[in-house]
Amino acid sequence: MKKFFSKPFGTEEQPIEEGRYRLFWTAVCPYAHRTVIAREILGLDDAISLGTLDYRRGEEGWQFSLDKDGLDPVLKQSKIKDVYLNSDSDYEGPYSVPVLVDVTTGKVVRKESAELLHEFATVFSKLHKKDGIDLYPEHLAGQIDEWNEKLAVALNDGVYGMGFAESQEKYDEAFERFFNMMDVVEDRLSNQRYFHGNTITETDIRFYTTMIRFDAVYYGLYSANKKRIEEYPNIFNYLKDLYQTSGFGSTTDFEAIKVGYYVSAGKTIVPKGPEVDKWNQSHDRARFE
């Protein structure tokens, strides 16, 4: 089977150079959110431009309706589907975000959030800001890979197992898997500031983008209602710590998240709550310094 948009970076065709690429995302999507956080905290915001799609997915998919005249100012396209179709005539979807585009050709070069997060952290290192965070330290690589996989199965992808379950049995399985992992994470974060000690890594970004949406969306809309985030004191304080860290809270749009999820689910009423001021309250994570 053909693997689309997977050519390596650092070649003559896809060099690592400032201004070459444009990242597209929508604020509602936790997977796209990963890449935008990494872009900001690694200092890639000057090297890789950013295009934002409407958080309300239309009949033709993600659209540039937030931009003037409904067109991306760089690619002059009205929807992300057209960007894909311009890139490879054999590609039949999904027309998803995030997506990284080579602005010299207007073509997609990468579309998988996990790959983009990892490549921003590693392959694009020569464009990182000085003294920046290393999201994938070599000595932690094994742990990071292991936890990334655990979180993907139980939480990042697992929460959709509850939201889109087609039987009580499938819902129950996803529910138990999700909240069992939450207990494991709560215990792990009782002993250290972040997932892998005192440094932010890929794992923290992956966990954050799912959990920051939990109270606002998953608890009610997906019936992930065993506990609220505040009932996990270590996770709650950890999330406040990250939210108050540059790149995390600044890229989190709760209104877009709520509206995007509820409208996509066919709901005509979007909940007003929960309050978001709690994320700016003091936390206790400095005790691990």
Count of runs of 4 or more consecutive helical residues: 10
Q: What is the terminal separation in angstroms?
A: 48 Å
Per CATH, the architecture of the largest domain is: Up-down Bundle
Which range best describes the helical content: under 10%, 10-25%, 25-40%, 40-55%, 55-70% or over 70%?
25-40%
Low-confidence stretches: none
Q: What is the mean predicted local confidence, pLDDT? A: 97
Largest sheet: 4 strands, mixed
Shape: globular
Radius of gyration: 19 Å
Strand content: 5-15%
Total number of domains: 2
What's the CATH first level of the largest domain?
Mainly Alpha
Within the largest sheet, what's the order of strands?
A: 2-1-3-4
The CATH topology of the largest domain turns out to be Glutathione S-transferase Yfyf (Class Pi), Chain A, domain 2
**Total strands:** 4
SSE order: EHEHEEHHHHHHHH
Q: Look at the helices and sheets and give the structural class.
A: alpha+beta
